[in-house]
Amino acid sequence: MRFPVRFVALLLILAVVLYPLVWMVGTSLKSPSEIVNNIGLIPREFTPANFTDGWTKFDVSFGRFFLNSALVSLLTVAGNTISCLLAAYALGRLRFRLRGVWFAVMIGTLLLPGHVLIIPQYILFRSLGWVGGEWPYLPLLVPAFLATEAFFVFLIVQFMRGIPRELDEAAVIDGASAYSIFRHVILPLSRPALVTTAIFSFIWTWNDFFRQLVFLSELKDYTAPVALTLFIDSTSESAVGPMFAMSLLSLIPVFLFFVAFQRLLVEGINTSGLKG
Amino acid sequence: MEPITRAGTPAQRTTRRRLLAAALTVPLLLGAAACGGDDDGGSGGGTELSVFWWGAEKRAELTDKALALYSQKHPGVTFKKTWQGNQGYFDKLATLTAGGNAPDIFQLDDNYISEYAARGVTLDLTEYTGNGKLDVSKFPESLLKYGEVDGKLAGVALGENTQGLVYDKTLLKKNNLPEPKTGMSWEDFISWAADVSKKSKLPGTQDPSAVYQALWVFLRQNGKDLYAGKQLGFDEADITKWFALWKGARDKGATPTPDVIHEGNASDVSKQLVATGKAGTSWVWANQMPELKKSTDNELGLIAYPGDTSAQWARASMYMSAFRGSKHKDIAVDVINFLANDPEAGQILGTDRGLPPNLDVRKQVAATVEDPNMKQTIAVMDELGKKYGPNAPTVPPQGHSKVRSELIRVAEEVIYGRQTPEQGAAAFVAAAKAAIGAS
Amino acid sequence: MTASTLTPAPVAPAAAQPGRRVRRRRENLAGYVFLSPWLLGLLGITAIPMLISLYLSFTDYSPLIPLTEANWIGLENYRRMFTADQSYWHAVQVTVTFALVAVPLKLAAALGVALLLNRTMRGISVFRGLFYLPSLLGGSVALAIVWVSMFNRDGAFNSFLALFGIEGLPWVNDPDWALSTLILLAVWQFGAPMVIFLAGLKQVPTELYEAASVDGASPWRKFVHITLPMLSPVIFFNLVLETINGFQGFTSAFVLSNGTGGPVDSTLMYTLNLYIAGFVDLNMGYASAMAWVFLLVIGAITVVLFSTGRFWVHYSDNEER
């Protein structure tokens, strides 16, 4: 009895939540004048050409932009999960001097609105020779490997604090060092946090616009979100149809990434088996 | 995190803050110097210039072609081209400039040219016009002047436009309504629009209270101006008159409801009400008419803004400027000269940025234009051009973009009925004064 | 804590043992070893721009001039902000309203859907993905067009209302309602906290539920006495983060209002106002001052949240912070 209720509730919510996206699909199939004048769900005249036009509109095919985005996103995922996990283990589980201070500083770095940091960062990264160099993605990637995204550090800390302390205590009594506790106790139990970190890193990097816009200057290096803005210039007629088409396509990789990583969460972890 | 309580004599404080500034910036500058070699040309001894502009994909294609032609004529010079839509363009340009890394050549508009020129970002092109490296002899004089900031030529217009009123011909024909005419008075225009609303059930005109270039023309027709040097060229009474004029029009039903007016106040071409079919007339720039046409199946017509057309002027729709810190200033100027004056380049660029600035090139391009809407635009602009008054406005001062956004905010307060025209006028004058730093 | 009967009894901290000091020192060292990448990032990447922005907040810096040419103007930016800038206070008001309404609604939506989705059944990943889809859109240009089309006068929402004979308003273009559509957009994108809740739910030891079932506890009792306490660190995390995000809300306000905060400043969020000051009006010194005031205020709010957390957040590591 309870199952259908839950299921129906889910479907209803889902219908409301997804309606705008379905509308987007409809619009991606409309012709330019229909986009302006017909705001209904169904296009009067199907224009699948938006997809092919969007894909090939620029000198560099949209596939290249997706590849660039994938590269940047995957490397950011690697950087964030590794570096933030290490920092979170220190801040969440180890006792060392000034820990409270560092934790507060870490939270503090979350609080400053990013727009005032872009220019100092640009100046800094340029002085380090990272901007427009051989590898245009350095300014986007190096910070990820140095755990500058405090959000994830905080996230993993909070998850780690949910891991029963007696596990460490038991390991300590067995003579384990902080490193082996990390390796054998914390790491396996942190999977939900790491998967969550990976998912968010990927999605947010995939969608990040401002930093990528500022640091990338060559068409062939553009990522998908930067390339999407090439469709829209408010001073002339905009290619809304192709833009919608490419926006939808660019949802697919993130969606797949999400579903794939979600599986890792579904299996769950039964901490009880590990209790000493 | 407690920066506020600091003791010490002023001198001590000065020293301290100098030290602070130095401590923060010296490593950066050293770093910048250490890797400054990166900027020197490309491989093989050639010269690479960076060029940055906003626009749609079509503009990119045309500009690419024109630059390729330059490279072909000047082997050894290549370009690193960056373009994007105008959203985020000025954010990125400001960031690049802050990093001392502005492109050698970049596109500006009259919204920002004073900001860049006054802070010494743009190269003063005056001396290049003197020694013939930059040929401006075929430019309309007022258009050239419109690139001067504080007596320095900050940018070369790559396109000219002027105010244009675009109306929906099909709508009028369907309802047996007369077309509006260049030269009709503001009152006549409003009655015409009210008539259109009544007969066609579609609001006759967008309410232009928030459209700065309409206000500007209106002021000039009343012997005033938007700016007088670095001061405002109008007072509260003028603005009250303007807001009251349109309040009257709204009361007569000549304009759409406030929410639709707000929609049309977006600067996007594609959101103009004449294109979205939500009003009969939109207040735009003449050269935007062909773009508007792409969003609608209806026939469009183009006339000047109401009142005496000699109040309109040749405005630079876009400039190309060179970076004062460029390592290749002379070549940068030569490229700009090429884009503005070379007949072949002009033919390639066409009317994408506005009418070509060089009158010879313009004539040649006009002769080959095929798009009937662009033909109409050129005809109207030619006609208006003959009547432009002698005292064309100079380029707007620093703070102009703020004045524009304040006008939209205050005008909408009045449109939504939250302020009276008088209150709005007082608020706008105060805000505009603050924006340009006027007394 | 009410759940104490259901959760394992806390183990007393390990009693004094031989070699405790050595262990301390080792743990100290280990702490810094693990922290080192973050420290390097903090000192090399995060701190310098932050300090520069702090310095700039006392200057009239514009991005178009070299950093070193910024003029020191003391507390002028702060004075202007607090005494002379009406739009500043207006933005504060908009932001507080937004955060107070959007954050609880978004968290409730996220937790509700997460509970519904916390099931092992075939295709559940896809289901979760579908609920996450709106968040995947982020703040793209497409999103603005979509939202306007939903909530304009002739939008889908009003067509829906018309079914019940209600005549809708031009929500997005009505100064009295535009902020509500922005809030709704934030709630619609509840995917991120939902995923965090789901991950947190997975960490609740199943034997607690089993034990409670044996005791005959109702689902509601299980939720209140097991799920909520065990989930509290994650609820706390989401609350802190969404509060910070709520106050920082920029992207959706930016895309929906075309970067203006309109109509008539009704969606002028704090960070949007700050962005306009810095990048549109090119007064980055003033923007920096706004940013630092923001940091101090939100920092204070965060401290308050952390101190209340002590009373309701249940950590399995039995450690006070």
Task: Walk me through what this model shows.
The complex is a heterotrimer of chains A (276), B (439) and C (321). Chain A is mainly α. Chain A contains 14 helices and no strands. In chain A, helix 4 (62-93) runs parallel beside helix 7 (138-145) and helix 8 packs antiparallel against helix 11. The radius of gyration of chain A is 23 Å and the shape is globular. Chain A starts with a helix and ends in a 10-residue tail after the last helix. Chain B is of the alpha+beta class and 439 residues long. Chain B has 2 domains: 45-159 and 317-382, Periplasmic binding protein-like II (D-Maltodextrin-Binding Protein, domain 2); 163-312 and 399-436, Periplasmic binding protein-like II (D-Maltodextrin-Binding Protein, domain 2, 3-Layer(aba) Sandwich). Chain B has 19 helices and 12 strands. Chain B has helices spanning 10-34, 57-73, 89-98, 113-118, 126-130, 141-145, 169-174, 186-200, 212-221, 236-251, 258-264, 273-276, 289-293, 329-341, 343-349, 359-368, 372-385, 400-415, 421-436, and strands at residues 47-54, 77-84, 105-108, 148-149, 152-153, 156-161, 163-168, 227-228, 231-232, 281-285, 300-303, 315-322. In chain B, a hairpin with a 2-residue loop joins strand 8 (227-228) and strand 9. In chain B, helix 2 runs antiparallel to helix 15 and helix 10 (236-251) crosses helix 19. Chain B is globular. Residues 1-16 of chain C have low confidence and may be disordered. Chain C is mainly alpha-helical. Chain C folds into 2 domains: 15-47, no CATH class; 79-312, MetI-like fold (Orthogonal Bundle), CATH 1.10.3720.10. In chain C, helix 4 (124-136) packs antiparallel against helix 8 (191-203) and helix 8 packs antiparallel against helix 10 (219-248). Classes of the chains: A mainly alpha (276), B alpha+beta (439), C mainly alpha (321). Chains in contact: A-B, A-C, B-C. At the A-B interface, helix 2, helix 6 and helix 12 of A face helix 1, helix 2, strand 2 and helix 3 of B. Chain A: Belongs to the binding-protein-dependent transport system permease family.
